[in-house]
Amino acid sequence: MKNQESEPEKQHQQDEVLKTEQNSQEQIVDEGEGSTLSDSSQPIRPLGHGAFGIVYLVYDRKYGIVANKIILKKKYDKKEWEAAVNIHDKIQSCPFIMNHIHQQDADMCSILVTEYSNMNTLEIIANQPKLSLPIQILRALMKQILEGMRIFHEAGFVHRDIQCDNILLHNPPGSQIIHAKISDFGFAKKEDLINEQTYFARTLPYMGPEIFKLPLIVTQKVDIYALGITFYKLITHKYPVSERNIKEQQKKMAQMKCIDRPSEIKDNILWDLLFQMLEE
């Protein structure tokens, strides 16, 4: 009887959450359009939206075509911009790392202005099981991403949220070149500032073995492991381990001695690289 009585209450709570999220989205759209409409910029079209807010494609007289990430102030985490500034100070220019250009405040929103990537993310490839990338294209993408990660790590940072959806693809207009760009620095920190008290959200399949150990000491190895999973999914269109929750994920990984070579990976050199990236 107790469960039956709680169902309408649960439904009401869910409806209220959805209503609140919808109102937030409407606020963001109204405020965002007003914020991007100025003498120096003109919104072109929405690119996407989520719990954080909405992203617009914008023409800016100073910066050209850019992406404006518009976030309600109550949901804005300054860590993303602070990390981006720190990273930009250390890494002046790298075609394989997303450039955060500017941050500004409106009445209700904060706006992050970033360079625009015009070809979605690696997730769009990883989620198409019938799409098999030619080895030359795969190697080119992997080389770019690894170079971006090398420069990122040389500057002393740990990204902590590497996954297919945080690596953008861009085709410079008028060229046949594709650049992969590491993005989303909301969890990035200097390596020496990360200690055992640090906890962060990330997609379970990308979490390396050291994340499940106590004391929790996060190093740049977590990014290398997550990149290995990213490449694994890009090739096989699946994760080597993907359980329902963190407890089951931890248990499954503890039972495994290593990740087995999937049948989709024929190239020995490629598998040797992935095996090293995914080893404990």
UniProtKB/TrEMBL annotation:
Q: Which UniProt keywords apply?
A: ATP-binding, Kinase, Nucleotide-binding, Transferase
Q: Which residues bind ATP?
A: 73
Q: Which GO terms describe its molecular function?
A: ATP binding; protein serine/threonine kinase activity
Compositionally biased residues, Basic and acidic residues: 1-19
Segments forming domain Protein kinase: 41-280
GO CC field: autophagosome; cytosol; membrane; phagophore assembly site
Q: Where is this region: Disordered?
A: 1-42
InterPro entries according to UniProt = Atg1-like (IPR045269), Kinase-like_dom_sf (IPR011009), Prot_kinase_dom (IPR000719), Protein_kinase_ATP_BS (IPR017441)
GO BP term, pick one: autophagosome assembly
User: What is the name of this protein?
Assistant: Protein kinase domain-containing protein
